[in-house]
Each structure stands twice: as C-alpha cells, then as structure tokens.
Design brief:
By secondary structure, the protein is α/β, with parallel strands linked by helices. Helices cover about 35% and strands about 20% of the residues. Helix 12 packs across helix 14. This is Terminase large subunit gp17-like C-terminal domain-containing protein.
C-alpha cells in the first residue's frame, strides 16, 4: 500500500500514522480508499483548466450546463485541500497545512443532498462512491435539518485536522460573517450580497492563498453574479485574480448521448443555451433561438472584392460609453448577407473610435449610424456624427427611425436564417466574438418585449441590414466616383442646368 501511495500521490511519511486519531490499520484503509477515488477522477480538459487556474486566481467561476461535472470537480479539489493529499500529477494549488473551508448551496437541504452527499455518501446506486472515506471524519455536529451537518472536522495528512462548515444562501450574508476561510465553495447561483460577504471571509491570514469558488448554471441570465466574471475578462484567462470557464454537455464524457437527446427534446428551446452550454440568457426567453450551426461559418481570410459592403454603427451618447459596429458583406448574386467583422469598445474618445473603425471598415464603405447620432460634444456643441464625417472622414448616413424597426429586423434575420441567406463569420472565439456574445444573451422580458441591455453590436447589425440597399463593392464606388467627377466637369449649359442630367 505505502509503495503504491508513494508512486501516485504526494510523498508520504508512515510516521504520520501515529499522529492521527486513527489506528494505523484504519488510516491505511482510509488512504487506500481515497487513493482509489482520486485515481478514479480523470478531469476533463475544462475541469483541469479550472483547477490549474487556482495557481493564480483567487476567484473562480465554473459556469456550465446541468450535469456537466462542475460541482463534482470543485468537491474533488476541496477534498484534496481538506486532507492534504494530492495526486502526483495535480496541476492546481496545494495547501501545505490543514484548511478552514465553507461549502454552501441554496438551502440547507440542497447543501445536504448535493454537497454533503458528494463528499461523504456518494450516489445511491453506488456508481459514484463518496469522495472522502468516513474514517477521515474526526468529529461532526448536526443542524436542525434531518441528516444535515453543520461542521465537520477532517483528518489531515499532517496529523492535524481541517474544518469544513456547511451553510446555505437562504441563511443570508450574515451567516458568513465572523468566519475566516481558506476555501469557500458556493454551488448554484447565490445572491450577489452573499457572494461579496463570502469573498470577505477569504481574506488571507498567512502566507497561503485563499479561494472563493462558485459552480453554477446561469438560471437568471447575466445577473450581477455572472457579470462580475464575464464582463471582467476573457473566458479561460486569469485577469486581476478572477477566472471563469464554461463547460457543456458534450464536454462531459460521462453523460450518455441518449440522455442528452432526451433532455434536448424535453426542455424549452429558450433554456437550452443556459442548461446545455452554461450560456447566460437575459429575461424570460431568447430572441434568437435558432441553432448556431445553421448560420455560423468560418471567417474569411480575404473579403471577396465583388461583394457589396455596408456597416452599422451604434455610438454612445455619453462620454466613455460603449460603441458597437458590424460590417456586412453582401453576395448579391446569391442574396446572402455575411456578418464579416465587428467592433465594440468602451472608454474611448470619438477620435479613437474613428481611428479604430478605419482599421476594420473599408475606406470607401458607407456606414449607417444610429439616428440619434451619438449626441454632441458638451464643450464645442459639435454633433458627433458631423465630427465623424467632416473631421474623421467616415462615410455615414443616418438610419431611418421607424416604429417597430427592431422587430422587423428580427423577423428579417429569422427569414434569412431559414432560407440560408444570413451568415455570421465566427469559429471558437475567432471572428465576430462581440456580436455572438450579445446574440446569445439577447432576450425578452416577461411581457415579451426585447430587453435593452448589452446590445450595441446587435443594434449596429440592425442599422446595417436597414441600409443593405446602400451596400456597394469597391468597383461600384470607383465607378460612381468617376461618374460624379465627369458630371462635375461638364460645361455649364446655363445657370447650373446640368443638374437636369
């Protein structure tokens, strides 16, 4: 046993057996059991990336569909920290001492039935054994919920003990006060005040790191909790101590294909992105429910020269606000509209936005702008649209404001997707990433009205579609400009009567 343990887990001194509350035989049995369980755990690429992020990130969010293994992954990591036993190939953070931890879900019953069960009971059918052998429990206290535990002391490999407290979001943020923790696991969506209070509890009190980890599916869309992560940085990258990653059904090798198909046929379409892929959706239902495979295409390395182009621009009327833009390529021969590129940026001046747009949009291309024109400079009183046209050299025309234009644009996109004549260039975060993120979250409220939130690229798309008749190829622009110059140099008949022509 000890040889096996030495080869596959952290170096182990057999003298530790004499420091624990267990007899050497029981301790060896417990170690052998946890060795089997840790060996059984073969993390998926997403789970492994989540664990590895613990080397840098203090806050981590595992955002996933239902039954994707996100909760199990966090419970496995927690068990390692509690016991001080790590697989030899463990790529995450390692504590060098016993820890104090908190594990919480929505209610005490949920905490008991999900988290406590995964750690100490396992599945009823026996297919998934408990993560921690019962021999590791030194002491436990109970709550007033039948079978629910309040505090558990766990045997640590050092001979000392770790402490695990079970809590519930429904107890409120005050239940987290007065407690310090090295590791806090919040399973399912917490109130953001609970999250903030839990974060305060992880203030480091020695040289070791502290962690706040959440595992959930985005049942309330892009709320404050989800925005705290996805608006802060790129998925899969650590930024300023924060990290998030999404996992879907297809990335869970233990979920049977027939089970996926059954759930897809039983759950409402508007919930599928959230439940299957962990994609947060606003409101009561998505606006665009079509399968992405129907309209996503690989990005083009070069833009076809014979296509016509037009772009939409949604500038912000407030200083430092977000600007969004999309470029459409129109294959007139086949009546197919392609979204070729997008742009989205906050906290920049109109001059900076204009310079950025010139790098993306063809210089001869016309842009259709929000009819509000992004307001005016509060100091010079110059309208932003006038500045963009006269001083920045952008070709712009105002979109015609018509009641119901937004719903009409949605209908047009629906019809084009069904006909196969609307495509977005995107593949695995390459291409129109800003637009796709908005597309996945674009939703209606409980009254069926489109929610006006995080829609700068979507609005720019609508403006561009409304101006598709203005789309021109580079050759057309050259011919039109040449014809205009010829007309301007014609001899004057009398009093400017050339205008008749």
């Amino acid at each position: 046993m000890e040889t096996l343990f030495m080869e596959n887990l952290i170096p182990f001194d057999s003298k530790i057996l004499n420091k624990t509350h267990l007899s050497p035989n029981l301790m060896e049995e417990a170690l052998e059991d946890i060795f089997r369980q840790f060996s059984f755990y073969n993390p998926s690429p997403k789970q492994e990336a989540f664990h590895k992020a613990g080397l840098e990130a203090r806050e981590r969010l595992f955002l996933g569909g239902n039954r994707t293994g996100k909760t199990y992954a966090v419970c496995m990591e927690l068990a390692m920290h509690l016991t001080g036993i790590y697989p030899k190939d463990w790529k995450g953070y390692r504590f060098s001492r016993p820890i104090s931890a908190i594990s919480a879900s929505i209610s005490l019953k949920d905490t008991r039935d999900i988290l406590q069960k995964k750690l100490f009971v396992g599945d009823i059918d026996g297919q998934t054994p408990p993560i921690l052998h019962e021999s590791f429990i030194v002491e436990k206290t109970h709550t007033n919920i039948a079978g629910a535990w309040d505090t558990v002391l766990i045997q640590h490999i050092s001979g000392r003990v770790s402490e695990l407290k079970f809590k519930a979001f429904q107890q409120g943020e005050s239940s987290f006060q007065g407690v310090r923790a090295d590791f806090v696991h919040l399973d399912e969506l917490p109130n953001f005040k609970v999250y903030q209070e839990a974060l305060v509890r992880t203030t480091s009190f020695d040289s070791e790191k502290t962690f706040l980890v959440a595992s959930m599916w985005p049942e309330k869309g892009k709320d404050d909790m989800v925005s705290h992560f996805i608006d802060h940085g790129e998925e899969g990258k650590v930024k300023d101590g924060r990290f998030y990653i999404r996992i879907s059904w297809d990335e869970n090798p233990h979920m049977p294909e027939e089970e996926k198909q059954h759930l897809r046929s039983s759950l409402p379409d508007w919930q599928m992105d959230a439940r299957e892929h962990g994609i947060p959706v606003f409101g009561q239902g998505k606006v665009f429910v079509q399968k992405e495979a129907e309209f996503l295409v690989e990005p083009f390395f070069e833009r076809p020269k014979h296509w016509a182009y037009v772009y939409g621009l949604d500038p912000s009327a407030t200083s430092g606000g977000t600007w969004g833009a999309v470029l459409l390529g129109y294959d007139r021969d086949n009546d197919i509209v392609y979204v070729m590129a997008d742009y989205k940026l906050s906290n920049a001046t109109p001059t900076e936005h204009a310079n950025n747009l010139k790098k993306i949009m063809p210089s001869w291309c016309t842009g259709v702008i929000d009819p509000a024109g992004a307001g005016e400079n509060p100091h010079t009183k110059e309208k932003t649209i006038d500045f963009l046209q006269t001083k920045s050299g952008l070709r712009l025309t105002k979109a015609i404001k018509v009641n119901g234009a937004k719903e009409a644009a949605v209908d047009e996109i629906y019809e084009r997707i069904r006909a196969g004549t609307f495509k977005i260039c995107w593949h695995k975060n390459v291409g129109c990433n800003h637009l796709i993120n908005e597309w996945r979250q674009y939703a209606r409220d409980d009254k069926g009205l489109i929610i006006k939130q995080n829609d700068h690229c979507i609005d720019a798309l609508f403006y561009a579609l409304a101006g598709i008749s203005s789309a021109r190829s580079e050759e057309q622009r050259v011919r039109e400009l040449h014809g205009y110059r010829e007309m301007m140099h014609r001899p004057t008949i009398s009093g400017g009567e050339w205008m008749r022509f």
